[in-house]
Amino acid sequence: MHIVTASTHRLYSCNDAFGNEYQMNHRLAALAAALRPHQWLKNLLICVPAFAAHRLDAATVRPLVVGFVALSLVASGGYVLNDLLDLKADRTHPRKRGRVLAAGRISSREAAWLVVGTWLVGFALSTWMLSLGFVLALATYLLGSSLYSLRLKREPALDVMFLAGLYILRIVAGGAATGIPVSTWLMAFALFVCLSLAFLKRFVEIAALPPDASPYVAGRGYRAGDTYWLQAAGLASAYVSAVVLAIYVNNADVTRLYSKPERLLLMCPVVVYWATRSWMNAQRGITHDDPVVAIATDPVTYVLLAISMVIVVAAI
């Protein structure tokens, strides 16, 4: 009888240990998911100045890696803050109610600590290892993303401009981290591409609303009928980026980097095709509501990137 009792006790102890370990892993997975690591793809924009300047040496890669980590941590803290502020609206949204915080997988208190922790580590890392310019760019990004979460996301059109500005700040941060100046041509091209992506994000969110839903989008200042002008503005922004690229090719400054710059004109139809296809898929309702996820999971994206790289190499 004593042997059976002891064996049973050991069995319960093992089950408790296994259960505790499972709960701990489940909680860590929930905390990691709250950071939205898939969104870190956006932070690869800090590499754009180095790519554009053809500077990918070891001295450039190190600050880019550190900057990417620091920016990702600060951005993730902003995502968690945004989820905290949107908690009520997310719980009524057909897809966003599955987010970690809205689904109750972590508490609001844990989310608040996550915000503080990621911001502290991100700024500590950048202050220790990167330039003052990068720290200022990171602080500007944090201020801008906080203003967006607190108020500006409820202002139609202005919210899209602000989202595009946060994309551009990533490019500015990349230039500050590496000491590479960001040209006005690059900024103009990136601005219109980012505007198109920001409009696309809003378009997909509104187009996905069920027919019987309220005509007003919860937590935003948009209405169901706004998809028409969002699509028009988004396509126009993408096409303008192709025009900026064409003008850049005919600029005298381009000869410093390319011996045959006229070949870069071949990238204009690539940009136009990518934009048109992205918006066509959105119109058909087959696009993920996050453009970053949609682009990253689309095989055509990588084909177009490969074609673009061939064009750039041919122009050098």
Task: Sketch the major β-sheet.
Answer: none
Number of helical stretches of at least 4 residues: 12
* SSE order, one letter for each helix or strand: HHHHHHHHHHHH
Quaternary state of this entry equals single chain
Structural class: mainly alpha
**DSSP strand count:** 0
Please tell me what the overall shape is. globular
Show unreliable segments: none
Strand content: under 5%
Overall tally of structural domains: 2
For the residues shown, what is the average pLDDT? 82
* Straight-line distance between termini: 84 Å
In short:
This protein is mostly helical and 316 residues long. It has helices spanning 2-34, 48-52, 58-85, 87-90, 108-129, 132-150, 158-178, 184-207, 227-249, 267-283, 291-296, 299-315. The protein starts with a helix and ends with a helix.
Helix and strand layout, with pairings?
Blueprint: H1 2-34, H2 48-52, H3 58-85, H4 87-90, H5 108-129, H6 132-150, H7 158-178, H8 184-207, H9 227-249, H10 267-283, H11 291-296, H12 299-315
Characterise this structure.
- It contains 12 helices and no strands.
- It has 2 domains: 39-155, UbiA prenyltransferase (Tetracycline Repressor, domain 2, Orthogonal Bundle); 183-316.
- Helix 6 runs antiparallel to helix 7 (158-178) and helix 7 packs across helix 8 (184-207).
- It is mostly helical.
- The mean pLDDT is 82.
- 69% of the residues lie in helices and 0% in strands.
